[in-house]
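2024-03-11 09:14:02 INFO worker-7 job=invfold-0412 stage=load source=structure_tokens
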């Protein structure tokens, strides 16, 4: 029994590690269901305590491999000794692993442990989704690596406009249970799960909530590729701003020009002349430009990570509309812990440079903000990490939104799989909302994505690049854009209640 327990933990750990290959850039989506099926295998005929251990080791592998890119930023820019940075990563990964641990423990605690049946999966999926919701909410939330993202480039991506990324996570679990049942030669559960998936897939194939409009938007993406260590060096502010201006100058003849997060590294109040000239140039060329910029407001001593629009606000305008603190801006709401704000800062800031990075004292913007207006287009914005927060992005969606636009600076993560996962997450938001995606970053991955064709076009990574795209606009509203996860949560609640009732009436509750 002791040997079997260790074998099961090792199998769960390896299965968790392998899930990394189901995400970008590997995109082997089918690995995730097999990995979860392995978790089901090691959790059959075990106690709740053993199931929790297996869930924890699965989580260690899942997050340890999946967010290993975080260590790149800690090691290169955090100023910590290697042993300290590794311990910090272990702490983060262990915290994240606690969520699948609780899902496994609760399911085994509330159900019989001698068989993984239909009633078991009807309980496990709601509890796992509950833990995923809590992971994305508690302590500001970290919703990265949801299993739903593994299906972004799969045939099941057709479900995204209906059930969203969280619903796709439930689907991965259901597919995993069908695989496990098949291997165990338990045909009935496998057939039930397969039938549900097949009927749903046929249904969504026959209905498409969004379609193309007879209109496109001509967008220019400008990727500066500024080295991370130079981005906020004061002596490099004007060379950076001049570089973006020079890269843009030959490409004014477009509907919209976009620059990445904090492309203008100087605080907004100090670059009035620069922005006024940019505003005039954009309007003169009959276009608009959106850029990231930092804003330190002297009166309130608050600092915001902003997106602002300059040039034409409306299509019929003949002049630019920019002025300092004009309303056509977006203030980042979901701030990155340590990177943009430091909890317990009086305690942590003196410990190491990691807790005292440049620009780590931002002020949170409102969760609900208006779309940016640029040359007559309604642009739904998200800055960097925010794109991973489904409810935040959907909360700012309107029926008038033309584009999903997100900016980032992934130079923190080097040549790791982090930037690829970040773009994958952005593409999932486009699928959910039925909006074309425009994403521009400092050094990649920048590009555009069509959620109907599920095709994207991208700039080369780690290069200064300018690219012009004709992006087709869409019409219609997805089910998810209107109702979010409410229907899914209601369905899973009913599933959980029925499963509990069935087990209770059958005398299967453990004393």
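2024-03-11 09:14:09 INFO worker-7 stage=emit residues=511
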């Amino acid at each position: 029994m002791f040997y079997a327990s260790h074998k099961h933990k090792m199998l769960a750990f390896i299965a968790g590690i392998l899930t990394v290959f189901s995400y970008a850039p590997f995109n082997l989506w089918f690995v995730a269901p097999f990995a979860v099926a392995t978790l089901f295998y090691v959790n059959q005929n075990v106690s709740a305590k053993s199931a929790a251990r297996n869930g924890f080791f699965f989580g260690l592998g899942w997050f340890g491999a999946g967010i290993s890119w975080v260590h790149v930023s800690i090691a290169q820019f955090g100023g910590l000794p290697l042993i300290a940075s590794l311990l910090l990563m272990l702490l983060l990964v262990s915290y994240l692993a606690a969520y699948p641990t609780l899902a496994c423990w609760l399911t085994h605690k509330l159900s019989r442990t001698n068989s993984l049946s239909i009633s078991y999966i009807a309980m496990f999926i709601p509890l796992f989704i509950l833990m995923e919701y809590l992971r994305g909410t508690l302590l500001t939330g970290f919703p990265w690596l949801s299993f739903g993202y593994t299906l972004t480039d799969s045939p099941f991506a057709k479900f995204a406009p209906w059930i969203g990324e969280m619903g796709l996570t439930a689907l991965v679990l259901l597919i995993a249970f069908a695989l496990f049942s098949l291997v165990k030669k338990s045909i009935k559960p496998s057939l039930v799960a397969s039938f549900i998936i097949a009927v749903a897939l046929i249904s969504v194939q026959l209905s498409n909530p969004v379609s193309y409009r007879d209109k496109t938007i001509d967008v220019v993406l400008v990727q500066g590729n500024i080295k991370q260590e130079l981005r906020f060096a004061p002596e490099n502010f004007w060379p950076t701003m001049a570089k973006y201006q020079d890269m843009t100058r030959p490409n004014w003849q477009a509907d919209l020009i976009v620059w990445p997060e904090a492309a203008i590294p100087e605080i907004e109040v100090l670059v009035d002349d620069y922005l006024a000239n940019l505003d005039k140039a954009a309007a003169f060329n009959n276009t608009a430009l959106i850029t990231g910029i930092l804003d330190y407001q002297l009166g309130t001593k608050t600092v915001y990570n902003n997106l602002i629009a300059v040039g034409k606000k409306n299509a019929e305008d003949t002049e630019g509309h920019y002025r300092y603190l004009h309303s056509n801006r977006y203030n980042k709401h979901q701030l990155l812990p340590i990177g943009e704000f430091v909890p317990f800062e009086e305690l942590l800031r003196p410990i190491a440079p990691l807790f005292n990075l440049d620009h780590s004292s931002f002020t949170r913007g409102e969760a609900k903000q208006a779309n940016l207006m640029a040359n007559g287009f309604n642009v739904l914005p998200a800055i960097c990490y925010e794109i991973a927060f489904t409810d935040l992005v959907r909360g700012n969606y309107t029926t008038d939104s033309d584009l999903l636009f997100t900016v980032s600076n992934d130079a923190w993560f080097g040549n790791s799989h982090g930037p690829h996962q970040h773009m994958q997450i952005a593409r999932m938001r486009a699928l959910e909302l039925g909006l074309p995606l425009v994403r521009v970053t400092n050094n990649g991955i920048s590009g555009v994505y069509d959620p109907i064709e599920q095709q994207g076009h991208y700039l080369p990574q780690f290069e200064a690049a300018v690219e012009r795209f004709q992006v087709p606009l869409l019409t219609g509203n997805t089910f998810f854009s209107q109702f979010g996860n409410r229907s899914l949560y209601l369905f899973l609640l009913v599933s959980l209640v029925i499963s509990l009732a069935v087990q209770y009436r059958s005398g299967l509750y453990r004393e």
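2024-03-11 09:14:09 INFO worker-7 stage=report msg="Residues 82-110 form the longest helix (29 residues)."
2024-03-11 09:14:10 INFO worker-7 job finished
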